[in-house]
Amino acid sequence: MGDVIASARPLDLRLPSPLEELRDDRLSRAGLRLFLKRDDLINPDIPGNKWRKLKYNLESARKQGHQVLLTFGGAYSNHIRATAAAGYYFDFATVGVIRGEEHLPLNPPLGDAVRHGMRLAYLDRAAYREKMSPEVIAMLHRRFGEFYLLPEGGSNADAVRGCSEIPGEIDRRFDLACCACGTGGTLAGLAHGLVPGQRALGFSVLKGGEFLSREVAGFQREAYGAVSGNWSIECGFHFGGFARRNSVLDQFIADFERRHALSLDWVYVAKMLYGIFVLAQQGSFPAGTTIVAVVTG
Ligand SMILES: Cc1ncc(COP(=O)(O)O)c(C=O)c1O
């Protein structure tokens, strides 16, 4: 099944994830070819960069003898949902520490998490901001005992190593790899996995995403001890900030679905693809460029 540790329950991982060419005259007019790396199809419960980020963390947790995974997220966090599923398949108990108050009935991602056996705990916004402080971590240990801590969004050195495996699965020549950026962990790994001459371009889904360059550099330093010079981040396609949208983005998504029969995740993937199309139309990519866009969810 292509993963590093054995799952306790049958788990179908579609790896390598499919690579599909997107044929679109707006791109061919600019002399570009675009391929979608369909990481969203890896597994319905642990899709996209969630699997990439969890893979080596699951291995580390097991090697260190942990039986519990604990992580943080907002009420709509895909990372919380995926961690719960990973716990179910790989036989770890899971705890999800959620920002804010409990709202019942649970929304779909938290409902899925609980169905996969996750215990939920809630931190008010002030405590949540301090979630990685020794005081809050000690409080969580008092409440939940020993655990393997996954950071919010799942980005750490193990996650970066998992994401660095994406380019190695691509069996055709390409020049540029693109992904959406929230914490920057995916871009850090993606860029590291490229060969000389290739570049990576991240699209910030956060307003004021300029700080992400420091984060990506930090993740690369943590994982590899050095920063690669082959990546950059576009900060102009956030549509007002995290989980914000407007009619331009909505129209892009509806039009994309009509043309390509693919419904895009609007929080991350649609913002990246919108950015790629705008940059293509502005002539920002040299004619002849082959782009791979990672569909991370
Ligand atoms: C679907 C999707 N795409 C992209 C990202 C951004 O990844 P990162 O936080 O590693 O920058 C996330 C967040 O993890 C995500 O859920």
Low-confidence stretches: none
Q: How are the strands ordered across the major sheet?
A: 1-2-10-7-8-9
Main sheet: strands, sense, barrel: 6 strands, mixed
Strand content: 15-25%
Tell me, briefly, the overall form. Answer: globular
| Residue share in helix | 25-40%
Ligand species: pyridoxal-5'-phosphate
Number of helices: 11
The oligomeric state of the chains shown is: single chain
Order of helices and strands: EHEHEHEHEHHEHEHEHEHHE
Q: What structural category arises from helix and sheet content?
A: alpha/beta
Cα distance, first to last residue? Answer: 20 Å
Radius of gyration: 19 Å
- Mean of pLDDT: 97
Number of strands: 10
Describe the structure.
Strand 8 (199-204), helix 9 (212-224) and strand 9 form a beta-alpha-beta unit. Strands 1-2-10-7-8-9 form a 6-stranded mixed β-sheet. Helix 7 packs across helix 8 (185-192). It starts with 18 loop residues before the first strand and ends with a strand. It has 297 residues and is an alpha/beta fold. The chain has helices spanning 25-28, 49-63, 78-90, 108-115, 125-129, 134-144, 157-163, 185-192, 212-224, 247-260, 269-281; strands spanning 19-22, 33-37, 68-73, 93-99, 119-123, 148-150, 176-181, 199-204, 231-234, 290-294. The mean pLDDT is 97. The longest helix is centred in the first third of the chain and has 15 residues, at 49-63. It is 37% helix and 17% strand. The structure holds pyridoxal-5'-phosphate. Pyridoxal-5'-phosphate binds at residues 48-49, 78-79, 153, 155, 180-186, 265, 268, 296-297.
